[in-house]
Specification:
Length: about 375
């Protein structure tokens, strides 16, 4: 896997720019597929934002929470867009199993649809060959970064919560290996904790209950200078709540963002006029963390990364269709993302010749 030096984008505030965009109707339609609120509220809310921005031009559906057992439904939901000749682009985030199969089928049906993935769950080499454009958090660099951040925040041990299905994903496995290697270099112990898979029999509630009960057990066993990291979105809200209560360290979420888990865990109410206000939510998190005596031990990225993937995916598709944006031209992509979003992020290609970009952003410690 070849890596290039990352280029840094200096962008204006994500939703500051986006919120002032005027509603507009496109001469074509874009299909957007996201998870439900329970599996991925950020993607869901970002999709609703796109529906409002382009009324009548964005078709939004959600895949089932139990997507591993309902892959035929996932595939069918994506394929239904290809049946509509007005649909000229499809954006899926998170791109759960079944997305690649659907995209391959669409390639055989139509050659005029732009196919975009955000946060793909399937084999990256296979994905790179089927999509027109894909974005994923830079799991390669994140492994070491998380270990370094945990140490900076005072951790002596890192607890890595996952399950076999996730650890079979190549990029997540690479992230884990890099995290473990860097932890060892820094003198930190990495402890594996196997959590219930939310796609298993106990579902999301079973995973969340396990997290709520296990973090206090781990704090009692190892002390408070332990850092939690989990690989699943459904873990985040209970993990933030339990980490706060136990006084342990929480460096960042699986999908880092100030909006991911923190508002629900800390009881932060977000009014309609504050939705998407990054500065506001970061300020409110800081207040809550300080009030509960865990300042300096909770963090996240300044970028609401899943929202960026959805909004940038839609806007890049529009630029490609209307203005001929070349997804292979990294400079042009960066300029288009600059117009569409607004956070300091770093782009890196997954491999030469692929329009599969990996992104990373700065952290904020509360």
């Amino acid at each position: 896997m070849k890596r290039k030096l990352s280029l840094v984008l200096v962008l204006v505030l994500v939703f500051g720019l986006m919120s002032v965009a005027q509603a507009a109707e496109l001469p074509f339609k874009i299909g957007v597929v996201t998870g439900t609120v329970s599996q991925g509220e950020e993607e869901y809310q970002a999709a609703l934002k796109m529906v409002a921005r382009y009324p009548g031009s964005i078709e939004h559906v959600t895949y089932p929470d139990n997507f591993m057992q309902e892959q035929e439904t996932v595939i069918g939901q994506i394929l239904q867009f290809a049946m509509d000749p007005q649909i000229k682009a499809i954006v899926v985030c998170q791109s759960v199993p079944g997305t690649t199969a659907a995209f391959n089928t669409i390639r055989d049906m139509r050659d005029d649809i732009v196919l975009i993935m955000g946060l793909p769950h399937e084999d990256p080499d296979m994905i790179a060959d089927v999509v027109d454009f894909a974005m994923e958090t830079d799991q390669i660099r994140r492994g070491a970064n998380i270990a370094q951040l945990a140490q900076r925040m005072g951790a002596k041990k890192i607890l890595h919560y996952s399950f076999p299905r996730h650890m079979s994903m190549e990029l997540l496995a690479v992230r884990y290996n890099n995290m473990k290697e860097e932890a060892e270099r820094l003198g930190l112990e990495l402890i594996d904790v196997t959590a219930p898979d939310p796609m298993g029999d106990a579902g999301i509630p079973g995973t969340q209950q396990f997290i709520l009960e296990d973090i206090p057990r781990q704090a009692a066993l190892h002390g408070k200078d332990i850092a939690f990291f989990g690989t699943n979105c459904a873990m985040m809200e209970p993990a933030i709540r339990a980490s706060m209560d136990a006084g342990i360290i929480f460096p960042e979420q699986c999908c880092p963002s100030p909006f991911h888990g923190y508002p629900g865990a800390l009881g932060i109410e977000i009014s309609e006029d504050r939705k998407g206000d990054v500065d506001y939510i970061i300020e409110q998190i800081g207040v809550k963390v300080a009030e509960q005596g865990n300042a300096g031990r909770m963090a996240t990225w300044v970028a609401p990364i899943n929202m960026i993937f959805v909004e940038a995916g839609v806007e890049l598709a529009i630029q490609h269709i209307q203005n001929g944006l070349d997804f292979a031209d990294q400079d042009a992509v960066e300029a288009a993302v600059y117009e569409a979003t607004g956070i300091k992020i770093s782009l890196n290609r997954y491999k030469d010749g692929a329009n599969f970009y990996l992104v990373i952003a700065d952290s904020v410690i509360f």
